[in-house]
């Protein structure tokens, strides 16, 4: 389970972004690892790779630019690419800074490692912890070569003078927490393996962050849609990307590529909150890899529509189109096979430090994940979840049927027992 896709991280980001406008709080204290004295290669290959990532998968200029909401997909305004942006006039404390090479108002005086650390570790050039709207918890999975390529490309874009205030915390809101510093090399993904490549692309683009209902009272499941997203004047609920009948089982590779290229599906335009305006810049191979990875995720039953009148949804606890077609997790749960859980009790940790705790009280089983314990809900033979957990878990056993780990089917990762 990655921090980028962790419900705790996602909820924290939304709570902070949705805070009411108020007087600024104190300036955060310096944080993060010491900066390195490094200059990344400016080779044509690195610059081109950085352009490809920045103008596409990472959506850098959709956040760090003024956007033309009158154009399909709301692309960045001409001549303002990377010049920064005050996200909402009524909440002027949240600012995407100028990342062009302008030396007075942009990143022209920042070192290469200042940019790399900000991108992957969420620490600003001056040591401040950046707002969670900067997707460092996803970008931290960028390989060393890819983040260096992004920095190399950002050095080549036109400098734009655009003085902006810096982000300040509203009074009474907690300061964002910094991610653990990156101290080990981050290798490139196995590009020749479509599933591994698609996993890498989906992770750094934080597809699950948008296409999962992190913020409702309950969570139907990873990539199951239902996250209400607002950008500019546009709002939309994210769609279910799984192969469940309520998702996109009718998609094939050709349709997926067409939708990403045109921003249209079944004759309807996608909402501009879906960043197809930059995803259309991805190569066919990368889009196919993304499609392969998304198709490998466990199906999630969650009907979501932005074209039908909103109705109460028992699956996520919100109101959206086709909400009344859904069932709650409790209603859809199967009888729990306790024998499949026995011996798996205790606290388990994923490699990134995220923990889950499986406990029992008599005949009742509970899951705890940075919140209050919730009853375990069975969703298949040996597969289980809980009301607010997006994940589907199973208890792995060795050849002698001894429990060895909790395995995450949603993330393809194992959580080992912690003493």
Note down, in words, how this protein is organized.
- The protein is of the alpha+beta class and 419 residues long.
- The protein has helices spanning 7-17, 44-57, 60-63, 112-121, 136-139, 144-154, 194-205, 207-210, 253-262, 276-279, 284-295, 329-332, and strands at 85-88, 91-96, 228-231, 234-237, 264-265, 268-269, 305-312, 319-321, 346-349, 355-361, 364-368, 374-375, 377-380, 383-385, 393-397, 403-408, 413-418.
- It has three domains: 3-181, no CATH class; 228-299, no CATH class; 334-418, Lipocalin, CATH 2.40.128.
- It has twelve helices and 17 strands.
- Strand 1 and strand 2 form a beta hairpin.
- Helix 4 (112-121) packs across helix 6 (144-154) and helix 9 (253-262) packs across helix 11.
- The strands form five sheets. A nine-stranded antiparallel sheet has the order 12-11-10-9-17-16-15-14-13. Strands 1-2 form a two-stranded antiparallel ribbon.
- The protein is 24% helix and 18% strand.
- The chain starts with 6 loop residues before the first helix and ends with a strand.
- It is globular and about 65 Å long.
Key structural traits:
Lipocalin, two-stranded antiparallel ribbon, 419 residues, 17 strands, 3 domains, alpha+beta
**In which range does the helix fraction lie?**
10-25%
SSE ordering: HHHEEHHHHHEEHEEHHEEHEEEEEEEEE
Shape: globular
How many individual β-strands? Answer: 17
Give the structural class: alpha+beta
Report Rg: 22 Å
Could you tell me the strand content as a percent range?
Answer: 15-25%
Side-by-side strand order of the widest sheet:
12-11-10-9-17-16-15-14-13
Provide the number of structural domains: 3
Largest sheet: 9 strands, antiparallel
């Amino acid at each position: 389970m990655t921090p980028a896709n962790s419900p705790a991280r996602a909820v924290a980001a939304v709570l902070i972004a949705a805070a009411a406008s108020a007087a600024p709080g104190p300036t955060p204290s310096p944080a993060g690892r010491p900066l390195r004295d490094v200059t990344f290669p400016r080779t044509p290959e690195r610059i081109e790779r950085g352009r490809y990532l920045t103008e596409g998968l990472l959506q850098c200029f959709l956040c760090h630019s003024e956007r033309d909401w009158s154009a399909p997909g709301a692309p960045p305004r001409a001549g303002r690419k990377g010049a920064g942006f005050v996200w909402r006039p009524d909440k002027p404390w949240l600012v995407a800074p100028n990342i062009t090479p302008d030396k007075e108002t942009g990143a022209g005086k920042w070192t290469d490692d200042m940019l790399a650390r900000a991108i992957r570790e969420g620490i600003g050039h001056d040591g401040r912890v950046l707002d969670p709207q900067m997707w460092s918890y996803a970008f931290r999975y960028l390989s060393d070569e890819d983040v260096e390529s992004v920095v190399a490309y950002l050095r080549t874009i036109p400098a734009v003078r655009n003085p902006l205030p810096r982000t300040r915390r509203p009074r009474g809101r907690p300061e964002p927490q910094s991610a653990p510093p990156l101290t080990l090399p981050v290798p490139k993904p196995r590009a020749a393996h479509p599933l591994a490549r698609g996993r890498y692309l989906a992770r750094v683009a934080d597809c699950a962050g948008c296409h999962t209902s992190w913020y409702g009272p309950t969570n139907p499941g990873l990539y199951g849609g239902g996250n209400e997203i607002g950008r500019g004047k546009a709002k939309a609920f994210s769609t279910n990307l799984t192969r469940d009948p309520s998702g996109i089982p009718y998609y094939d590779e050709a349709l997926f590529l067409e939708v990403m290229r045109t921003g249209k599906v079944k004759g309807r335009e996608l909402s501009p909150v879906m960043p197809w305006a930059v995803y259309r810049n991805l190569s066919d191979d990368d889009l196919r890899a993304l499609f392969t990875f998304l198709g490998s995720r466990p199906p999630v039953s969650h009907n979501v529509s932005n074209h039908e009148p909103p109705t109460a949804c028992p699956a996520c606890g919100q109101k959206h189109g086709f909400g009344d077609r859904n069932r709650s997790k409790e209603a859809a749960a199967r009888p729990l096979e306790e024998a499949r859980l026995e011996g798996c009790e205790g606290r388990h940790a994923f490699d990134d430090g995220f923990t889950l705790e499986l406990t029992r009280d008599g005949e009742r089983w509970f899951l705890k994940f940075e919140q209050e314990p919730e009853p375990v809900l069975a969703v298949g033979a040996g597969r289980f979840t809980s009301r607010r957990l997006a994940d589907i878990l199973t208890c792995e056993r060795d050849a002698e049927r001894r429990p060895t780990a909790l395995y995450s089917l949603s993330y393809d990762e194992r959580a080992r027992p912690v003493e």
